[in-house]
Task: structure prediction
Amino acid sequence: MSGRSNARKQPKVKEKVIIDENNPMLRAFRAYSLELDAKHDRYERIVKLSRDITIEAKRIIFLLHSIDIRKGNKEKVLEEAQQRLEKVIKVNFKAVAQEMQNLDPYQYRGAYAPGLQEFIEAYSFMEYMRYADDKSTSLDNEASMSDWQQLQEKMQYIEAEANDEIAAEMKEHKFSFHVEPSEYILGISDLSGELMRRCINSLGSGETDTCLLICKVLQHLYKGYVGLSIPRCRELSRKIHTMRQSVLKAEDVCYNVKVRGGEAAKWGLESEKPNVDIDEGFF
Result:
């Protein structure tokens, strides 16, 4: 019995596994590991850059909302907003473009899309505020708002790099940030929320003509978006639903203006919420 108990107590000796470092399968998987780690690190860096773009764009939108005809600060605010937006293009989007050089931008679309949409919202809002009081500017004037191709042209970058053969000779290296058209459409759809806020703020400051103009712009945008159909874009229906809510709120403001006239600012919005559950047939 003692012999059996001693045999059971003896630990089993594990066989040492010998790894062949030259195994083609092992070398391939280690290369895949390095490639995936590099991709994940690059993705996280782009996410951080996109957050910086989002934060700055939100600050610029807040700045644009401070425009007040009673203070006469429109030109000053627009100039500052323009300079800050140009800086975002030259610094932040350039850094994102450098990360994605010679790579498929669609692989990192989820990383930079939020920042791009917020920037497009801020840029288009700045352009709207610049042309808002221009009586010669109509709703169909394409020159009043940059399309995605015009933004793409702004995001072209050139860097100087040394030639391998002759170190003293420098050559230009060109690269760009890819502006996805569908992201541009989603960014413009967010503009409706800022226009709605501008409409409500204008009611409080007594700018009833501005309320009516913004309402027409929102109706014009909504009419165009209802007819859109973008494959593999799940966000579009949600954006259109949010846009419709903004249109209804702006129409509620204009209703107060038409019914109550100059006293609309004192009464404010109606206490009842607009019916936003009516199916428009685009879901």
Observations:
- The beta strands are 156-162, 170-176.
- DSSP finds nine helices and two strands in the chain.
